[in-house]
Input
Amino acid sequence: MPYRFVDAAPTADVGFVAEGPDPGTCFAAACAATLATMLDNPESLRPSVERPLHVEAESLDLLLLRLLEELVFYKDAEHLFLAVDAVRVVGDDGAWQATAMGRGEAVDRSRHRLAADVKAVTLHGLEVEPTATGWRASVVLDI
Amino acid sequence: MADRSERAARLRQAAVRVADAVWEIPPAAKPGMRVPARIHATPEIFAALDDGVFEQITNVALLPGIVGAAICMPDGHWGYGFPIGGVAAMHPESGVISPGGIGFDINCGMRLVRTSLAHAEVRERLRELVDALYARVPAGVGAGGLLRLDDDDFRAVSVGGARWCVERGFGWPEDLERTEEGGAIRGADPDKVSARALARGRDQVGTLGSGNHYLEIQVVKPENVVDPAAAAALGLDIPDQVVVMFHCGSRGFGHQIASDYVQQFAPLMKRKFGIDLPDRDLACAPFRSEEGQAYFAAMKCGINMSYANRQVILHRVREVFADVFRRDPHDLGMHMVYDVAHNTAKLEEHVVDGRRRTLLVHRKGATRAFGPGMQDVPAAYRSLGQPVIIGGSMETGSYLLLGVPSGSEAFFTTAHGSGRQMSRREAKRRFEGRSLQHKLEQRGIYVRAVSFGGLAEEAGGAYKDIDAVVEATRRAGTSRPVARLVPIGNIKG
Output
């Protein structure tokens, strides 16, 4: 599993660590963790709709925050759960971009086992950093 | 992590017990502290506070323009920037406004409604009642709201709040008198709210949310009434009276407003305003700056949307009770007791060092608790003080309290809940949702939940002892209990 949940310092919320050999794969793992926070059975999600996702930021951690915020946005604005298989991250210090295609469907309580309602992606402990084997992201979601 | 624990330990040791349930960490304890940090807690609660409370409340004391003290309520625990339970009053001219001092869920709050029903009348129909509420009050992740609003309507809701709802038949005019700010705070400006926030919130008016949000049917047992005269004056005047309490906020709307402005303020703090703070979750702007005023106006939109949210839910609750008991809600005596907000910043008048001053009071996971005689308390309650609702877990119950004169020491603020003491992961390891539901039913508490994982996370053991928290607020002099409310039915997202 490219991500694991950890005890969030604010006890009321959810934290996870996502990893990957490159930033894009790490970001895709973070997207999967965010979806799994909201949906207990993400494998039930059918790719019925697509939403192109494109975000920009001056740093990798804010880039990831904004990408994950897209998933939270669509959950509320369109009642969609979106899965992200791959993320393309390009750029350099001061100017980063992430692009992905979110695929999913409307919330369906007959098939989806609903979990937590993510309110926000927080800055708390937000980190995207290189490791010996690739990249690691630490995120805390406000529930 | 070791550094954080060591810092917290030093701050904990620096705290001096200055009153029965008030501890003070002097400014010398951390470089840059402008005022002391005060923690309201009994010795037992103090000993169990998490490290984050000490670090965060002393960071709050660093904020420019802070007046008096940075204060943490007894249900305090680790938050973002401010601890949950954090209170800070700022001089409006020299002080800052910080979204972390309000929280992501702007105007998360509680509403309490009485009925003229006694437990015996409800007992046999409890399952039907809870099932009907579960079916008809939207809850859980991705739920759509009870109102279909276009953009203009939603912008109007963000200005008109509960008043907008009552004007359109969702509630009674008296509901507004029993809501802080009359159900709509002045100065909201939807032009200061992002399109993204408007899009997130438009379809969520009349939704409960999930996590620690809930709707609960409770009983006021005679043995749990601490002040019978005050209880009767607040409408709790029947033995084993059934009441309804619900806890929810501004949903995706408020969350997005908070996120937008935290991200806007963070890079500006040092670069534009020359403010240097150790925690970017404390992102802030001078209150009188263009940015600070924009957030204040946007935050008020969040406050009003939340009032509208609770107003529409109340309307639906009255409808459900009417359908189940086949009686008009007026006939069922379903009058609001009060509605309180937990996460706000408001301009208020307080006496500091003998002088009456206007201050910007941040309350994050803390409840305003004005004392007797104060103007903003509804006329019907003014001689008593402002009603306060402190919510416990679905297993332990909640409290109705009143503000008291000595609350002036804490800008008339008291606790808001029992406060989490266990992470969500730990709670899911220790408790299992379906078996918890079954055990609660055996105890006479019928619970319906959208998520059993979420139910486990909200087990009573995940929270501090509500009785201990309320006792701490009494001993700290910020509120006094009127009645304990025992749950018999609950719906959760």
